[in-house]
Design brief:
Strand content: under 5%
Oligomer: single chain
Distance between the termini: 112 Å
Number of strands: 2
Strand order of the largest sheet: 1-2
Number of domains: 3
Largest sheet: 2 strands, antiparallel
Number of helices: 9
Length: 172
């Protein structure tokens, strides 16, 4: 008794399946680097490739050796444990050649990276809704970045007017 009387369709499906496996193995051999899996699920050659990249960060010690005045202010503020390049970006070129002046960061964007209000952040961490808080002004209009807090307790954004000045203008 022949159980598989019409087995041709099974042979075709098996052939397509085996061709798919062979194609997969060929593509895998072509696209997956040879060093992949040498140290587990990791591409071992990446260590050498990363080590060959140029150094971009100088480290906060280098910054502090030249900018002692900023260091004094920073160590008395809330950002005492934040490294310089976390805000100012990689500065190895500036450290090698001080005549290369780094671009000062846009505080309206930079400060929001850490301080924009987000329910996932701890309640104790200082957070603001920048759209409502600063009226579009850069943070360093009112705050000193190295020692946050208000620059002057009476500081107000440049474009805002007090109630007294509005009243005085209305009388004119």
């Amino acid at each position: 008794m022949n159980r598989f009387k019409d087995s041709e369709h099974l042979l075709r499906v098996t052939g397509v399946f085996l061709a798919g496996i062979v194609l997969f193995l060929c593509l895998r051999a072509w696209f997956v680097p040879k060093s992949f899996g040498q140290y587990g699920h990791y591409r071992a050659d990446s260590i050498t490739e990363i080590a060959a990249l140029p150094i971009r960060h100088a480290g906060h010690e280098v910054c502090e050796s030249c900018h002692a005045d900023v260091l004094e202010v920073k160590h008395t503020g809330k950002h005492a444990n934040v490294n310089c390049e976390a805000c100012h970006g990689p500065l190895a070129k500036h450290a090698e050649d001080p005549s290369i002046k780094p671009v000062l960061p846009d505080t309206a964007v930079l400060c929001a990276r850490c301080h924009e209000a987000n329910s996932a952040k701890p309640k104790w961490f200082p957070q603001v809704v920048t759209a409502e808080h600063s009226q579009g002004l850069p943070c360093n209009t009112c705050h000193q970045p190295h020692k946050p807090g208000l620059k002057d307790t009476d500081a107000k954004p440049a474009d805002s007017k007090t109630a007294d000045s509005k009243t005085a203008e209305a009388k004119k």
